Amino acid sequence: MADKIKVLLIDDDEDDFIITRDIMNDIPGRNYLLDWTSSFGEALRLIKQGIYDVYLVDYRLGAHNGLELIMTAVKERAIAPFILLTGQSDRETDEQAMHAGALDYLVKGTFNPFDLERSIRYSIEHAKSLAEIQKLNGELEQRVEERTQELAEAIKKLEHTNRSLYKAQQEIHKALQKEKELHELKSRFVTIASHEFRTPLSTVLSSASLISKYKGLEDDDKRQKHVDRIKSAVSNLTTILNDFLSISRIEEGKIYNLPTTFNLKAFAQEVVEEMQGFLKEGQHIDYQHLSDVETISIDKQLLKNILFNLLTNGSKYSGEGKTIRMTTAITNNSVTITVQDYGIGIPKADQAHLFTPFFRAQNVTNIQGTGLGLNIVKRYVEIMDGTLEYESELNQGSTFTICLPNAAEA
What we know:
CheY-like_superfamily
């Protein structure tokens, strides 16, 4: 049997404790253990002990309020999530709760066992996601420290030798530049990860909360709309995580070019079929293979990741009803792949930075993304000893052409 989830209710009204306890006892499975304290100071002491999985905090706490308690606990690095209990439901209260550090809020007297169980479960999952981001941030900081140590060792060697002074100066300059880039990368990673995770997580929380309000058969369409929103948000989270993991593996040198022999035309058709669930309404991928020869020998997984990134971008930056064209061709000892869309295109001023990690063009700021997709494509193509070229016109679309060596013809 799973361990019980330990919940601490912080409320100066014992009647509210009894009501909350009764609601919690009605949750199916009763996998919760509820404790109660009415003291602001006692609550902070218990929070510091870290023995609870989640905290329910009343907005009113005598001379203090729940927002003060949450802000104080968060500053003292409390890990478990906070859920604010309030007597009113409005946007101002919602914003105050989130600003203080609460992951959700419930309106007293209106929530039922399902609402309470849902809020606790999603708050714990949200807290785990934020903890993972902090862990990744810590790992990046460790890498910065390692780079700094390397720089210190380089300087120490320089102090003990007069040989190759110019070369040593160049190495120091490179190390400093690398450290600067790493700092910038960490900063951009934290900013983008925090923003990109917050949006889909908020969508999941809000839709999950609203689903519970649609209970009749006549509300099926409304429920399905929020189910679809949750699925889309989870898909976005998966894409973001995959991008971050791909960049991490590339930086660590864990991506290798391992060619296998397969039918390119059949493989490309499978990729197009898998893409159907990601296209906007009315969009269509027009695929053609332009050679009689169909068998190639290249890294199948890297090619699949490249095609998914390019086709996803083609769909993302094109309107509904648009066509994305893809062609493949095998000539002599190479494979040529072209992906063309008729979307918003890339401004000329931004094209020089197109493959820079986390870079996003000026005309896509309202479209969700990490700015890593094309950088990942370029790095994969380089690992496969290929070339990548592109053409793009604003409001006309973009064309990406990839040429890869074909080991089958070598």
